[in-house]
Amino acid sequence: MKSVKLTISELRREKGVTQSELADYLGVSFQAVSKWENGISMPDIILLPLLSEYFQVSVDEILGLKPLSNREYIERGTDKKEHWDKKLGYLKDSRIGFWNEDYLEFLVNKVWNITKPIDIIDFGCGYGYLGIMLLKILPTGSTYTGVDISDKLLDEARIIFKDSAYKTKFIKSDLNSLKVKEKYDIAICQALLRHLPNPKEILKKMTDSVKIGGMVICAEINREFENVGLYIKGIEYNSLNKTSVLKKFWKTELELEGRDYSVGIKVPCYMQECGLHNIDVRINDKVNLINPYEDKSKYSKLLNSLITTNEWNRILSEDEKKDIIALFMNRGLTRTEAEIYLKSEMDICQFIMNNKDDAFILKTHCLLISYGTK
Fold first, then answer.
1. Residue predicted with more confidence, 304 or 70
2. Under CATH, which number does the domain 8-62 receive?
Protein backbone atom coordinates (compact mmCIF):
# COMPACT_ATOMS: atom_id res chain seq x y z
CA MET A 1 0.00 0.00 0.00
CA LYS A 2 2.64 2.49 -1.10
CA SER A 3 0.25 5.41 -1.56
CA VAL A 4 -1.32 5.12 1.90
CA LYS A 5 -0.40 7.83 4.39
CA LEU A 6 -2.31 7.41 7.62
CA THR A 7 -3.74 10.51 9.25
CA ILE A 8 -4.02 8.96 12.72
CA SER A 9 -1.26 11.07 14.27
CA GLU A 10 -2.79 14.31 12.97
CA LEU A 11 -6.30 13.34 14.07
CA ARG A 12 -5.12 12.19 17.48
CA ARG A 13 -3.33 15.46 18.19
CA GLU A 14 -6.37 17.46 17.10
CA LYS A 15 -8.58 15.43 19.41
CA GLY A 16 -6.06 15.94 22.23
CA VAL A 17 -5.57 12.27 23.14
CA THR A 18 -2.37 10.32 23.76
CA GLN A 19 -1.27 7.18 21.97
CA SER A 20 -2.08 5.24 25.15
CA GLU A 21 -5.62 6.64 25.33
CA LEU A 22 -6.27 5.76 21.70
CA ALA A 23 -4.74 2.31 22.24
CA ASP A 24 -7.01 1.68 25.28
CA TYR A 25 -10.09 2.60 23.21
CA LEU A 26 -9.08 0.19 20.43
CA GLY A 27 -7.83 -2.55 22.73
CA VAL A 28 -4.29 -2.54 21.36
CA SER A 29 -0.89 -1.57 22.76
CA PHE A 30 0.38 2.02 22.52
CA GLN A 31 3.38 0.57 20.64
CA ALA A 32 0.98 -0.56 17.90
CA VAL A 33 -0.39 2.99 17.56
CA SER A 34 3.17 4.33 17.46
CA LYS A 35 4.03 1.94 14.61
CA TRP A 36 0.97 3.03 12.62
CA GLU A 37 1.90 6.69 13.01
CA ASN A 38 5.51 6.06 11.98
CA GLY A 39 4.50 4.04 8.92
CA ILE A 40 6.01 0.80 10.24
CA SER A 41 2.76 -1.15 10.17
CA MET A 42 -0.94 -0.78 9.36
CA PRO A 43 -3.99 -1.15 11.62
CA ASP A 44 -5.92 -4.40 11.26
CA ILE A 45 -8.83 -3.96 8.87
CA ILE A 46 -11.37 -4.61 11.65
CA LEU A 47 -10.05 -1.56 13.52
CA LEU A 48 -10.68 0.89 10.67
CA PRO A 49 -14.43 1.34 11.39
CA LEU A 50 -13.58 1.95 15.07
CA LEU A 51 -11.01 4.59 14.11
CA SER A 52 -13.53 6.15 11.74
CA GLU A 53 -16.18 6.37 14.47
CA TYR A 54 -13.71 7.63 17.07
CA PHE A 55 -12.43 10.50 14.93
CA GLN A 56 -15.72 11.10 13.06
CA VAL A 57 -14.10 10.84 9.64
CA SER A 58 -14.36 8.29 6.84
CA VAL A 59 -12.10 5.25 6.48
CA ASP A 60 -10.68 6.77 3.27
CA GLU A 61 -9.77 9.86 5.27
CA ILE A 62 -8.12 7.69 7.94
CA LEU A 63 -6.05 6.03 5.20
CA GLY A 64 -5.18 9.39 3.66
CA LEU A 65 -6.82 8.46 0.38
CA LYS A 66 -9.17 11.42 0.53
CA PRO A 67 -8.58 14.86 2.04
CA LEU A 68 -9.81 15.36 5.58
CA SER A 69 -13.17 17.08 5.26
CA ASN A 70 -12.55 19.31 8.26
CA ARG A 71 -9.30 20.77 6.89
CA GLU A 72 -9.01 24.53 6.80
CA TYR A 73 -8.55 25.79 3.25
CA ILE A 74 -5.07 27.19 2.62
CA GLU A 75 -5.08 30.21 0.32
CA ARG A 76 -2.12 30.71 -1.99
CA GLY A 77 -2.29 34.49 -1.62
CA THR A 78 -1.69 35.32 -5.29
CA ASP A 79 -3.22 38.76 -4.71
CA LYS A 80 -0.75 39.58 -1.94
CA LYS A 81 2.49 41.60 -1.95
CA GLU A 82 4.40 38.78 -0.24
CA HIS A 83 3.63 36.43 -3.14
CA TRP A 84 4.78 38.77 -5.92
CA ASP A 85 7.88 40.03 -4.09
CA LYS A 86 9.31 36.55 -4.82
CA LYS A 87 8.25 36.39 -8.46
CA LEU A 88 10.59 38.67 -10.42
CA GLY A 89 12.60 35.76 -11.81
CA TYR A 90 9.47 33.83 -12.68
CA LEU A 91 7.93 36.81 -14.49
CA LYS A 92 11.06 37.48 -16.52
CA ASP A 93 11.37 33.82 -17.50
CA SER A 94 7.69 33.39 -18.35
CA ARG A 95 7.51 36.55 -20.49
CA ILE A 96 10.12 35.28 -22.94
CA GLY A 97 8.19 34.41 -26.07
CA PHE A 98 4.94 35.89 -24.74
CA TRP A 99 4.16 38.19 -27.70
CA ASN A 100 4.99 38.56 -31.35
CA GLU A 101 5.91 42.25 -31.53
CA ASP A 102 4.45 42.57 -35.02
CA TYR A 103 1.08 41.31 -33.76
CA LEU A 104 1.04 43.80 -30.88
CA GLU A 105 1.92 46.50 -33.41
CA PHE A 106 -0.98 45.31 -35.59
CA LEU A 107 -3.37 45.62 -32.63
CA VAL A 108 -2.17 49.14 -31.79
CA ASN A 109 -2.24 50.45 -35.35
CA LYS A 110 -4.97 48.48 -37.11
CA VAL A 111 -7.38 47.18 -34.47
CA TRP A 112 -7.30 49.88 -31.80
CA ASN A 113 -6.39 52.62 -34.33
CA ILE A 114 -4.09 54.53 -31.99
CA THR A 115 -2.65 57.34 -34.09
CA LYS A 116 -2.08 60.08 -31.48
CA PRO A 117 -0.10 60.09 -28.22
CA ILE A 118 -2.06 58.51 -25.37
CA ASP A 119 -1.85 58.14 -21.61
CA ILE A 120 -2.00 54.49 -20.56
CA ILE A 121 -2.30 52.91 -17.10
CA ASP A 122 -1.23 49.31 -16.56
CA PHE A 123 -2.98 47.50 -13.69
CA GLY A 124 -0.68 44.89 -12.11
CA CYS A 125 2.28 46.07 -14.19
CA GLY A 126 4.91 43.87 -12.53
CA TYR A 127 8.35 44.98 -13.68
CA GLY A 128 6.87 46.93 -16.61
CA TYR A 129 7.08 44.26 -19.29
CA LEU A 130 3.96 45.41 -21.13
CA GLY A 131 5.11 49.02 -20.93
CA ILE A 132 8.42 48.05 -22.55
CA MET A 133 6.53 46.39 -25.40
CA LEU A 134 3.95 49.13 -25.89
CA LEU A 135 6.05 52.29 -25.67
CA LYS A 136 8.16 51.14 -28.63
CA ILE A 137 4.98 50.99 -30.69
CA LEU A 138 2.74 53.79 -29.40
CA PRO A 139 2.94 57.28 -30.97
CA THR A 140 5.76 59.48 -29.65
CA GLY A 141 4.67 61.45 -26.59
CA SER A 142 2.58 58.66 -25.09
CA THR A 143 2.90 58.15 -21.32
CA TYR A 144 2.87 54.99 -19.23
CA THR A 145 1.76 54.60 -15.60
CA GLY A 146 2.30 51.23 -13.96
CA VAL A 147 0.55 50.12 -10.78
CA ASP A 148 1.59 47.11 -8.72
CA ILE A 149 1.47 45.82 -5.15
CA SER A 150 5.11 44.63 -5.08
CA ASP A 151 7.96 46.97 -4.13
CA LYS A 152 10.52 44.60 -5.63
CA LEU A 153 8.81 44.44 -9.01
CA LEU A 154 8.37 48.22 -9.12
CA ASP A 155 12.00 48.80 -8.13
CA GLU A 156 13.03 46.69 -11.13
CA ALA A 157 10.65 48.63 -13.37
CA ARG A 158 12.16 51.94 -12.27
CA ILE A 159 15.66 50.66 -13.01
CA ILE A 160 14.61 49.47 -16.48
CA PHE A 161 13.02 52.82 -17.39
CA LYS A 162 15.52 55.04 -15.55
CA ASP A 163 17.42 56.26 -18.62
CA SER A 164 14.67 55.79 -21.20
CA ALA A 165 13.22 58.62 -23.26
CA TYR A 166 9.68 57.62 -22.28
CA LYS A 167 7.58 59.45 -19.71
CA THR A 168 6.73 56.86 -17.09
CA LYS A 169 5.40 56.74 -13.53
CA PHE A 170 5.06 53.81 -11.14
CA ILE A 171 2.60 53.61 -8.26
CA LYS A 172 2.77 51.11 -5.42
CA SER A 173 -0.76 50.16 -4.40
CA ASP A 174 -3.12 47.32 -3.68
CA LEU A 175 -5.57 47.54 -6.58
CA ASN A 176 -8.49 47.28 -4.15
CA SER A 177 -7.48 50.50 -2.40
CA LEU A 178 -6.14 52.27 -5.49
CA LYS A 179 -7.67 55.71 -6.06
CA VAL A 180 -7.09 56.84 -9.63
CA LYS A 181 -7.17 60.65 -9.67
CA GLU A 182 -6.39 61.16 -13.35
CA LYS A 183 -8.29 59.87 -16.34
CA TYR A 184 -6.43 57.82 -18.93
CA ASP A 185 -6.97 56.97 -22.58
CA ILE A 186 -6.37 53.27 -21.97
CA ALA A 187 -6.42 51.02 -18.92
CA ILE A 188 -4.75 47.70 -19.61
CA CYS A 189 -3.82 44.53 -17.75
CA GLN A 190 -2.04 41.31 -18.65
CA ALA A 191 -2.38 37.96 -16.82
CA LEU A 192 -3.71 39.83 -13.78
CA LEU A 193 -7.38 38.97 -13.26
CA ARG A 194 -6.72 35.22 -13.00
CA HIS A 195 -4.79 35.85 -9.78
CA LEU A 196 -7.44 37.97 -8.03
CA PRO A 197 -10.46 36.98 -5.93
CA ASN A 198 -12.54 39.87 -7.32
CA PRO A 199 -11.75 40.29 -11.04
CA LYS A 200 -15.05 41.99 -11.87
CA GLU A 201 -14.47 44.69 -9.24
CA ILE A 202 -10.98 45.41 -10.55
CA LEU A 203 -12.32 45.55 -14.11
CA LYS A 204 -14.88 48.11 -12.91
CA LYS A 205 -12.03 50.16 -11.39
CA MET A 206 -10.17 49.97 -14.71
CA THR A 207 -13.30 51.24 -16.46
CA ASP A 208 -13.62 54.13 -14.00
CA SER A 209 -10.00 55.12 -14.64
CA VAL A 210 -10.47 55.91 -18.35
CA LYS A 211 -11.97 58.90 -20.11
CA ILE A 212 -15.23 58.75 -22.01
CA GLY A 213 -14.23 57.25 -25.33
CA GLY A 214 -11.24 55.57 -23.71
CA MET A 215 -10.52 51.85 -23.87
CA VAL A 216 -10.15 49.00 -21.40
CA ILE A 217 -7.94 46.14 -22.59
CA CYS A 218 -7.45 42.82 -20.78
CA ALA A 219 -5.01 40.17 -22.01
CA GLU A 220 -5.88 37.11 -19.94
CA ILE A 221 -5.07 33.42 -20.04
CA ASN A 222 -7.83 30.87 -19.79
CA ARG A 223 -6.12 28.04 -17.88
CA GLU A 224 -7.93 25.26 -19.67
CA PHE A 225 -6.86 26.60 -23.06
CA GLU A 226 -3.30 27.08 -21.85
CA ASN A 227 -3.18 23.59 -20.37
CA VAL A 228 -3.86 21.86 -23.70
CA GLY A 229 -1.36 24.05 -25.57
CA LEU A 230 1.71 21.92 -24.88
CA TYR A 231 3.22 19.19 -27.04
CA ILE A 232 6.56 17.49 -26.37
CA LYS A 233 7.81 15.06 -28.99
CA GLY A 234 8.42 11.70 -27.35
CA ILE A 235 5.67 12.07 -24.73
CA GLU A 236 2.12 10.97 -25.46
CA TYR A 237 0.03 14.14 -25.91
CA ASN A 238 -2.85 12.91 -23.74
CA SER A 239 -0.50 12.39 -20.80
CA LEU A 240 0.48 16.08 -20.99
CA ASN A 241 -3.15 17.15 -20.68
CA LYS A 242 -3.98 17.02 -16.97
CA THR A 243 -7.17 19.05 -17.23
CA SER A 244 -9.33 16.29 -15.72
CA VAL A 245 -7.28 16.43 -12.51
CA LEU A 246 -6.79 20.19 -12.47
CA LYS A 247 -10.50 20.93 -12.93
CA LYS A 248 -11.18 19.81 -9.36
CA PHE A 249 -8.26 21.94 -8.17
CA TRP A 250 -9.48 25.00 -10.11
CA LYS A 251 -13.10 24.53 -9.02
CA THR A 252 -12.13 24.49 -5.35
CA GLU A 253 -9.98 27.62 -5.73
CA LEU A 254 -12.83 29.42 -7.46
CA GLU A 255 -15.37 28.45 -4.80
CA LEU A 256 -13.20 29.11 -1.75
CA GLU A 257 -10.76 31.76 -2.95
CA GLY A 258 -12.44 33.45 -5.90
CA ARG A 259 -9.39 32.68 -8.08
CA ASP A 260 -10.96 32.00 -11.48
CA TYR A 261 -9.02 29.77 -13.87
CA SER A 262 -11.53 30.60 -16.64
CA VAL A 263 -11.64 34.37 -16.20
CA GLY A 264 -10.10 34.99 -19.63
CA ILE A 265 -13.17 33.71 -21.41
CA LYS A 266 -15.55 35.63 -19.10
CA VAL A 267 -13.96 39.08 -19.43
CA PRO A 268 -16.12 40.22 -22.40
CA CYS A 269 -19.27 39.51 -20.33
CA TYR A 270 -17.83 41.44 -17.39
CA MET A 271 -16.99 44.33 -19.73
CA GLN A 272 -20.61 44.42 -20.87
CA GLU A 273 -21.75 44.56 -17.23
CA CYS A 274 -19.31 47.42 -16.60
CA GLY A 275 -21.02 49.46 -19.32
CA LEU A 276 -18.38 49.18 -22.01
CA HIS A 277 -19.40 48.96 -25.66
CA ASN A 278 -17.80 47.97 -28.98
CA ILE A 279 -16.49 44.94 -27.11
CA ASP A 280 -14.44 42.47 -29.11
CA VAL A 281 -11.88 39.72 -28.55
CA ARG A 282 -8.68 38.70 -30.27
CA ILE A 283 -6.29 35.87 -29.46
CA ASN A 284 -2.55 36.32 -29.23
CA ASP A 285 -0.97 34.62 -32.23
CA LYS A 286 2.26 33.72 -30.44
CA VAL A 287 3.19 30.04 -30.60
CA ASN A 288 6.62 29.02 -29.38
CA LEU A 289 8.11 26.30 -31.54
CA ILE A 290 11.14 25.08 -29.61
CA ASN A 291 13.05 23.48 -32.46
CA PRO A 292 16.54 22.06 -31.82
CA TYR A 293 17.24 21.66 -35.54
CA GLU A 294 17.27 25.35 -36.45
CA ASP A 295 18.37 28.49 -34.56
CA LYS A 296 20.32 27.11 -31.56
CA SER A 297 20.38 30.44 -29.72
CA LYS A 298 16.61 30.83 -30.00
CA TYR A 299 16.16 27.17 -29.05
CA SER A 300 18.18 27.52 -25.85
CA LYS A 301 16.43 30.74 -24.85
CA LEU A 302 12.92 29.35 -25.29
CA LEU A 303 13.73 25.96 -23.76
CA ASN A 304 15.34 27.50 -20.67
CA SER A 305 12.34 29.81 -20.29
CA LEU A 306 9.95 26.85 -20.39
CA ILE A 307 12.04 24.78 -17.99
CA THR A 308 12.45 27.51 -15.36
CA THR A 309 8.86 28.73 -15.62
CA ASN A 310 7.55 25.21 -14.97
CA GLU A 311 10.34 24.35 -12.51
CA TRP A 312 11.25 21.30 -14.57
CA ASN A 313 14.86 21.70 -13.44
CA ARG A 314 13.91 21.29 -9.79
CA ILE A 315 14.78 18.11 -7.90
CA LEU A 316 12.08 17.60 -5.28
CA SER A 317 12.88 16.32 -1.82
CA GLU A 318 10.49 13.85 -0.20
CA ASP A 319 9.16 16.65 2.03
CA GLU A 320 8.51 18.86 -1.02
CA LYS A 321 6.63 16.02 -2.70
CA LYS A 322 4.50 15.62 0.43
CA ASP A 323 3.81 19.37 0.44
CA ILE A 324 2.63 19.29 -3.19
CA ILE A 325 0.37 16.32 -2.53
CA ALA A 326 -0.98 18.05 0.59
CA LEU A 327 -1.75 21.21 -1.43
CA PHE A 328 -3.69 19.22 -4.03
CA MET A 329 -5.59 17.27 -1.37
CA ASN A 330 -6.39 20.59 0.32
CA ARG A 331 -8.10 21.51 -2.96
CA GLY A 332 -10.28 18.38 -2.84
CA LEU A 333 -8.24 15.89 -4.86
CA THR A 334 -7.77 12.34 -3.65
CA ARG A 335 -4.27 11.18 -2.80
CA THR A 336 -4.26 9.00 -5.91
CA GLU A 337 -5.14 11.97 -8.16
CA ALA A 338 -2.47 14.12 -6.51
CA GLU A 339 0.16 11.41 -6.90
CA ILE A 340 -0.74 10.87 -10.56
CA TYR A 341 -0.33 14.60 -11.21
CA LEU A 342 2.99 14.77 -9.38
CA LYS A 343 4.35 11.68 -11.17
CA SER A 344 3.37 13.14 -14.53
CA GLU A 345 5.23 16.38 -13.78
CA MET A 346 8.28 14.48 -12.57
CA ASP A 347 8.25 12.31 -15.72
CA ILE A 348 8.17 15.44 -17.91
CA CYS A 349 11.00 16.95 -15.89
CA GLN A 350 13.12 13.83 -16.28
CA PHE A 351 12.42 13.61 -20.02
CA ILE A 352 13.27 17.26 -20.65
CA MET A 353 16.47 17.17 -18.61
CA ASN A 354 17.57 13.99 -20.42
CA ASN A 355 16.88 15.56 -23.81
CA LYS A 356 18.00 19.17 -23.39
CA ASP A 357 19.93 19.13 -26.67
CA ASP A 358 17.17 17.85 -28.92
CA ALA A 359 13.78 18.37 -27.24
CA PHE A 360 11.18 19.31 -29.86
CA ILE A 361 8.35 21.25 -28.17
CA LEU A 362 5.37 23.37 -29.15
CA LYS A 363 3.90 25.72 -26.55
CA THR A 364 1.12 28.29 -26.83
CA HIS A 365 -0.54 30.37 -24.09
CA CYS A 366 -3.77 31.11 -26.03
CA LEU A 367 -3.83 34.62 -24.54
CA LEU A 368 -7.32 36.11 -24.97
CA ILE A 369 -7.28 39.87 -25.60
CA SER A 370 -10.63 41.48 -24.76
CA TYR A 371 -11.23 45.19 -25.28
CA GLY A 372 -14.09 47.66 -25.05
CA THR A 373 -14.79 51.38 -25.18
CA LYS A 374 -16.21 53.55 -22.42
1. 304
2. 1.10.260.40
Mean pLDDT score, 251-275: 94
pTM of the model: 0.83
CATH no. of 81-227+260-286+365-373:
3.40.50.150
Q: In this predicted structure, what is the pLDDT of residue 62? A: 77
Three-class SS string for the chain?
CCCCCCCHHHHHHHHCCCHHHHHHHHCCCHHHHHHHHCCCCCCCHHHHHHHHHHHCCCHHHHCCCCCCCCCCCCCCCCCCHHHHCCCHHHHHHHCCCCCCHHHHHHHHHHHCCCCCCCEEEEECCCCCHHHHHHHCCCCCCCEEEEEECCHHHHHHHHHHHCCCCCEEEEEECCCCCCCCCCCEEEEEEECCHHHCCCHHHHHHHHHHCEEEEEEEEEEEECHHHHHCCEEECCCCHHHHCCHHHHHHHHHHHHHHHCCCCCHHHHHHHHHHHCCCEEEEEEECCCEEEECCCCCHHHHHHHHHHHHHHHCCCCCCCHHHHHHHHHHHHHCCCCHHHHHHHHHHHHHHHHHHHHCCCCCCEEEECCEEEEEEEC
Could you tell me the residue ranges of all domains in the chain? 8-62, 81-227+260-286+365-373
d(CA 165, CA 147): 20
Residue 71's pLDDT is 66
